[in-house]
Design goal:
Blueprint lengths: L7 E4 L6 H9 L2 E6 L2 H12 L7 E5 L8 H6 L5 E6 L22 H15 L3 E9 L4 E3 L2 E3 L1 H11 L21
């Protein structure tokens, strides 16, 4: 919907690689960044099993510090056409002990500052008039609802991004909280 065949997608929290798998299936090129080298290897393996001729780049780095200029130059582009952010939902899952992992921040303020550093470092590579997609969920912590999505929206609005839509996923079928 937001890109055409041959365009470039950047995923700053690649995880197990779903974004780059879909890029390959849909004829998009992709750059995926993940701070965890082990999960990045899983993403590479998953993407390599898919059919397609897309260019996929896998970077083991901290998205708040990664230098994307060399990867862009290597692929003869200056900017990407879509950025996706699917950060950890603060500290509800301890993924790893990697330095810079925002899931390891102690406070909500630290989490938001860390996310903002990632946006500052990566969104400058987004082509003008293009889109950023953010996948984020709210959490319960100490018997209190923490509206992470609202905090992230406010952060992006303060940075002068224009909100185009909010998609609320119906999680009634999710079994994670049934007990």
């Amino acid at each position: 919907r937001y890109t055409k065949k041959g365009e470039w997608v950047l995923d700053a929290f690649l995880g197990s690689g779903t974004t780059l798998i879909e890029c390959k299936k849909l004829g998009r090129n992709g750059i995926g960044i993940d701070i965890d080298s082990q999960i990045l290897e899983v993403a590479k393996q998953r993407a390599s099993s898919e059919k397609g001729n897309s260019t996929l780049e896998f970077l083991n780095d901290d998205s708040s510090k990664v230098n994307l200029k060399n990867v862009l130059k290597k692929n003869n582009i200056d900017k990407v056409n879509l950025i996706l952010y699917h950060p950890p939902y603060w500290d509800i899952i301890k993924f790893n002990d990697c330095k810079g992992n925002i899931a390891n921040t102690k406070t909500l303020e630290e989490f938001l500052k860390s996310f903002e550093k990632i946006v500052n470092n990566t969104a400058k590579y987004l082509e003008d008039e293009r889109y950023i997609g953010i996948v984020i969920g709210d959490i319960y912590k100490n018997s209190e609802w923490v509206p992470l999505s609202s905090h992230i929206i406010q952060l992006m609005l303060k940075k002068k991004y224009i909100l185009k839509s909010v998609v609320v996923k119906n999680i009634s079928e999710t079994k994670g909280k049934q007990n």
